[in-house]
Design a protein that fits this description.
The chain is of the alpha/beta class and 343 residues long. It folds into 2 domains: 24-127, Macroglobulin (MG2) domain (Immunoglobulin-like, Sandwich), CATH 2.60.40.1930; 131-332, SGNH hydrolase (Rossmann fold), CATH 3.40.50. The chain has 6 helices and 18 strands. The chain has helices spanning 145-153, 177-188, 218-236, 258-274, 283-287, 316-332; strands at 2-6, 11-16, 24-27, 43-46, 50-52, 57-63, 70-77, 83-90, 96-101, 107-115, 118-127, 132-138, 157-163, 192-196, 242-246, 278-281, 296-299, 302-305.
Length: 343
């Protein structure tokens, strides 16, 4: 079961516990019960400082003295995900246990060995074959944000843009976004997909089963969330990718989209809760707190214009702030290449 947790800058990430069965493959070990209270014996954990996507990493769990069996939990946390653990036992006379992990996504991986009240932690910086591959896609909202992303990431990532103006998820007769997401995932195989979409939505939708849902009640939100979830799962590619979805700030009060964007954001957040490896970058809270339109906001002691005159799109400064929030989410989610902690 997944749950949401709030991160910095209003970023909400889906945290999954126990997803991706079989993440840890162990050479030896078995079942047993953890000792209560102080561990009978202290253990040590060794993990490589660096690794590559698709190449096995070997974790070494060791102890001094092996006069009795010792059971520990060996846990791994991929970027943007919680810990997945399995219980392993060092048999009597066994001082060393090796477990292997094959990372499918780049970023900072965290490992723990839990031995009663002793927890030993290590980190491994996992890189892709080349630079991080980032796909920036969506409607006209992603335009300019993608350029600032490329500037801010520099050599750390190769940014590919795919903007489809005047399209939306609720109008597949104009452009089929779920189908496009599957095509992009196959053709680009991005490590990270950044999506900014929904500014043109609000059309009635027909769920696979049920009656036509008019915008923007619960049936409409549920169907929108179902379609977003399908797109997120396509981009995540069974754990090989990550997806960051940007929310829509409130439009100007005279826009007919006032009643649309908040339900769109609700649906996006609901979908992200269901997809391990998906996260929401809360641009709505950053640029329009309380879902109230703001043409200008105060940033570092000065007023800056964050919206264009149409009351919908982001200004250059607003787009740069959105890109900065994406980069912050990549860092906080441990997706960007980074040096491991000192040992």
């Amino acid at each position: 079961m997944s749950r949401g947790r709030r991160l910095l800058l209003g970023i909400v990430a889906a945290v999954a516990v126990g997803v991706g069965a079989g993440l840890l493959a162990t050479a030896g070990g078995g079942d047993g019960d953890l000792a209560a209270g102080e561990p009978v014996q202290r253990v040590a954990l060794d993990a490589p400082a660096r690794g590559k996507v698709g190449r096995p990493l070997t974790l070494s769990i060791s102890r001094r003295g092996a006069d009795r069996p010792l059971t520990v939990d060996v846990c791994a946390s991929a970027p943007l995900l919680g810990y997945e653990c399995r219980r392993e036992t060092l048999a009597e006379g066994e001082e060393l246990l090796r477990s292997t992990v094959t990372p499918r996504s780049p970023g900072l991986w965290r490992f723990e060995v839990r031995n009663g009240d002793q927890v030993v932690r290590r980190e491994t910086a996992v890189v892709a074959g080349g630079r991080l591959q980032l796909l920036a896609t969506g409607d006209s909202m992603i335009q300019t944000v993608d350029s600032f992303l490329a500037q801010r990431l520099g050599r750390r990532a190769a940014v590919e843009s795919d903007a489809r103006i005047s399209t939306g998820i609720s109008s597949p007769d104009v452009f089929d976004w779920p189908a496009r997401a599957r095509q992009q995932a196959r053709a680009v195989a991005p490590d990270v997909t950044v999506v900014y979409l929904g500014a043109n939505d609000g059309f009635p939708m027909s769920p696979p089963r049920g009656e036509l849902a008019e915008c923007c009640g619960e049936p409409w939100v549920a169907e929108y969330a179902r379609r977003v979830e399908g797109m997120m799962r396509a981009y995540v590619r069974d754990g090989a990718g990550r997806v960051l979805w940007l929310t829509l700030p409130a439009p100007r009060s005279d826009s007919h989209f006032v009643a649309v964007y908040d339900p769109v954001n609700q649906a996006v957040r609901r979908a992200a809760e269901r997809v391990p490896g998906a996260a929401v970058v809360a641009v709505d809270e950053l640029l329009a707190p309380g879902y109230e339109f703001r043409e200008r906001i105060v940033r570092r002691g000065r007023q800056i214009t964050v919206r264009q005159p149409d009351g919908i799109h982001l200004s250059l400064e607003g787009a740069d702030l959105a890109a900065a929030a994406v980069v912050a989410a990549l860092r906080e989610g441990r997706v960007l290449p980074t040096r491991p902690v000192r040992r």
